[in-house]
C-alpha cells in the first residue's frame, strides 16, 4: 500500500517551497506596467533585495534563471582573453567556470573536489604565483548545491587582500541567499548573483546581479557586455521600463513583493538565517545518529562547512535511490537527486531545507527517512529522529 496520497511535499534544493501568500499575490489580472501600482511597487523591491544581501550597492534584475545571471555577471566584468580563477567545489562552480571559458575568458581552475570546501592555502598560493596580476576575477560559490558544501566567502576576500590582489570577487549565492548568513559589503564581495526560486521563495524566472562601484568601473572596460545583459540601465530608477529592458515580469514581482515582506519586514533576515541553521542542525543530528549503526553519512564531514539550505547524504550502496523512491511512492515526499559529478550516485540523495520550511516539515522528512530505512532494512542508529527533535526542542 501507499501513504503518499495527501498533500505532496517537494523537498528538493530548489525550486523551494513557496508560501501560499506568494502564490495568491500572483493570481490577478495584468497591471498597467507604465504607471500606478506596478512601477511604484518595483521601486520598493529594490531596497529590500539589498537588505537581504546586506549591501548598500546596486542590484540589477533580470527575467532569467540562475544560469542567465552567471552570464550577466561575466559579460559585465570581463573582456575576451581576460583571465579568471575558478574555485570549484562541485557542479555549480565548475559550470560557471565552463561558461566563462565558452565566452572566451581564460580560466584557471582550482578544483577542490566533491567533499571539501575551498582550501584557502591553495588559493593563497595561486594568488602569490600571479605576480603580474593577470587574474581579473575570482569566481566562487557560497553554497554548492551539488555537494552541499558552504565556502568561506570572507576567507577568500581576506586572501585577496593579504595578497594585495586587485581581482574582483564574484560569488554565486543562488542556493544560499536568504538561507545562510551573507554580508556582501562587510565581506568585500564585488559581484553576487542569485535567483528567486530558492531562499527567496518565488517561482523560478527572476534572477539578480548585485555589484559594487569597483565592479561597475570594470563594466566600462568590459568588451563582452551586450545590450540586453548590460546592468547599467537596470539600476536606473527613473526608467521603470528599462529596469527589465522591456516588459516587466509583472506577476513574479507581485509574488516577490510578498516574499520580501515576509523575509525582511516580518520574520527578519537574521531570524531567517537562524531558522535555517536550526533546521539544518536537526537534519545533521539525525544523519549522524543513523550513521552510528549503519552506512549513513552527510557528504560534508565538518559541520561548519555544511550548507544550511541543502544536505547531500550517502545512505550506502544503492540506498539513496531506493529511499528516494520509497519516500516519493509510499510517503508523499520528493527528495533531491544527486547531480552529475557525484560518484556512485545511487548511494546519495539530497534533502532541500530552504525557503518556506519549518520544524514540522523537516521532522516529517526525517521521520519518513527513518521509517523508510526500517521498511527497506537499511541499518541505522535507531534514535536519529529523537536527536533531531532534541535540536528543535533546545532551540525553542
Ligand atoms: C540552482 C543553482 C544554480 C542554477 O540556477 P538555475 O536557476 O537552475 O539556472 C546555480 N548555482 C547554484 C549554487 C544553484 O544552487
TrEMBL record:
Keywords annotated in UniProt: Aminotransferase, Pyridoxal phosphate, Transferase
Ranges for domain Aminotransferase class V: 71-313
Any GO BP: glycine biosynthetic process, by transamination of glyoxylate
One Pfam entry name: Aminotran_5
MF annotations from Gene Ontology: alanine-glyoxylate transaminase activity; L-serine-pyruvate transaminase activity
Required co-factors: pyridoxal 5'-phosphate
Domain of life: Bacteria
Family: Belongs to the class-V pyridoxal-phosphate-dependent aminotransferase family.
PANTHER family per record: ALANINE--GLYOXYLATE AMINOTRANSFERASE (PTHR21152:SF40), AMINOTRANSFERASE CLASS V (PTHR21152)
Entry protein name: Aminotransferase class V-fold PLP-dependent enzyme
